[in-house]
Amino acid sequence: MREGDPRCVPMHICFLCNEYPPSQHGGVGSFVQTLGRELVARGHRITVVGFSPAESGRVENDQGVRVFRLAHSPVPNTGLVVNGSRLRRALMQLHREQPIDVLEGPELSLALLPRSFPPAKVIRMNGGHHFFAVTLGGRPQLWRSWLELRSFKRADYLCAVSRFVADTTRKLLGLDGRPIEILPNPVDLALFSPGPEVPEESGLVLFVGTVCEKKGIRQLIQAMPKIVAAVPEAHLWVVGRDWRDPATRHCFTDQLRQLIPATMRERIIFKGPIPHSLLPDVIAKASVCVYPSHMEALPIAWLEGLAMGKAVVASSAGPGPELVEEGVSGLLCDPHDPLAIAEKVIQLLREPMLRRQLGGRAREQVVRQFSVDVLAGRNEAFYQHCLQHHQGR
Prior knowledge:
Helices cover about 40% and strands about 15% of the residues. It is of the alpha/beta class and about 400 residues long. Strands 3-4-2-1-5-6-7-8 form an 8-stranded mixed beta sheet. The longest helix has 20 residues, at about 370-390. The radius of gyration is 21 Å and the shape is globular. It starts with 11 loop residues before the first strand and ends with a helix.
């Protein structure tokens, strides 16, 4: 079925998502909200179900998207059994009220559901346990590996946010023969749009993302002395939620502060998390957006920077080349090398004409490939195909 096909009938689509805004969230939460709102506008019924410790038991309406926040098990070491039971009961109740046509979640999300649950079950690969464990140089944990494999066995259909995550996961989990639809993350171009309202702040280098090792923020901070030596007005804003080491419970931001030389402390500002609706004004101030991730699936933060028409320095690892064409819509760097990061940032800070050229092409690329309007149509067609095939089985 072609995208935007008028034959697409209204569907009840349910997303499994534990980080739907305004709860603390990352790219997956932003994606579900952006796509969900657009699908509601196209006449579909959209429900989101997830666990939210701070706001459990609430039912919300977000521009037509119904959000059910379930309570976590309060008893230690019972989460798998209790949470699984609560999720199954909630889904069965929703299905009785109005049959769910398509149920979608990330890699681990279907592990606790019965094979017999009626809807067409979809896994959307955003980078699961095997993917990140292996691509970041580690080893998968036995228990989480088992759950992820169990989840994939319960999935009827598969899609992925990038070709890289699809091909890598296919290899790691032995998915040969199973079709995987490539459906990139969409960006809301009405929200993330360049404009003259907020002036650019000279020398501002902006990082947006979770403050953790795999996002490359440590290497970016290590690059700052060289950047400032070459461009004296350069300064860095770090925007995003902090990450705690699950073993030590130490904040990663505290570890990073210890790396910052005294001469750089006023040049590197940790802004913390910012509401998604306020991000465009922050990005608008940046001279350069830098995303030196060690690995990603298809990062929404990058898309938002590109959509704002900003010059971007992004990681060459993983799906980086799928988002940024080197020298055309941005610059790519080795995310493990602070000197390589510094060289690309310095180049852009010194060449305003190049920044404008790259930013203009970046915006054009996002409009063409990653707009929510275009990708909502492709997702709609994919769900319709899944439903029709599932009903015919």
